[in-house]
Amino acid sequence: MDSTQLLGYIGALIVGLVLGLIGGGGSILTVPLLVYLLGYNPVIATAYSLFVVGTSSMVGTYQKYKEGLVDIKTGLAFSFPSFIAVYLSRRYLVPGIPDTLFSFGNYALTKEMSIMIFFAIIMLLASYSMIKKRKNNNTVSYAQPYYKTFVQGLIIGTVTGFIGAGGGFLYVPALVVWANIPMKKAVGTSLIIVTINSLIGFIGDVQTLEIEWVFLLSFTLISVIGIILGVFISKFISGKKLKKSFGFFVLIMAVYIIYKELK
């Protein structure tokens, strides 16, 4: 194993830790890790990210469920429209994007570049959501009209399908703000949505891409170990402080990706 592979596997462990601690952000780490450190094409990287994050989140969901921190009904309500959007975007939208979107003189905006830049923009929005102070949410949760949940699920599902993200970094604030679920329960609930979205989205990729299963499964196994550790450590760490710190990290990563793609 060379140093690059070793760093990749260390990164996989960190991906799992982050998912276990804050219920999202796995793809924010996985995609840049696969693209910039391990040299994968962004389309392949986003596909692998879906499998890694989805499988790790499935383990995390079970861990959180045992603690009573998963609202299954709300999670499934968000999941249904989301996984439809994720699957369709991975099966048809991403493969249908032309290799070069447009060119201007010597400059060309490629499919790979557009995916990474859009990914960075979503990261900027996510970092703002994580850094911004929110009022304490200790009120009893209420059921919003299902048509709102359906539309919200479609929008987030399309976005996460395009960028190859599980969407936890979008679903946690969505569950807190829209569904009025307390933060700790929103983290656990987001994992069940991420699991369903990611794995169904990956099914769309399996039909269009060649998968390196040995690498993908070993990378995923290490991420699963990470999420088990992350869920355990989350019992002893303030979620608010951790989320804000991760928000600043995401902001730095987003700026870095934009710089790398546009330089």
TrEMBL record:
It is found in: Cell membrane; Membrane. It holds the Pfam family TauE. The keyword Nucleotide-binding does not apply. Keywords: Cell membrane, Membrane, Transmembrane, Transmembrane helix. GO terms for cellular component: plasma membrane. InterPro entries: TM_pro_TauE-like, TSUP/Inactive_protease-like. It is a multi-pass membrane protein. The chain crosses the membrane at residues 7-37, 43-62, 74-93, 113-131, 151-174, 186-206, 213-233, 245-262. Belongs to the 4-toluene sulfonate uptake permease (TSUP) (TC 2.A.102) family. This is Probable membrane transporter protein. The lineage of its organism: Bacteria, Pseudomonadati, Bacteroidota, Flavobacteriia, Flavobacteriales.
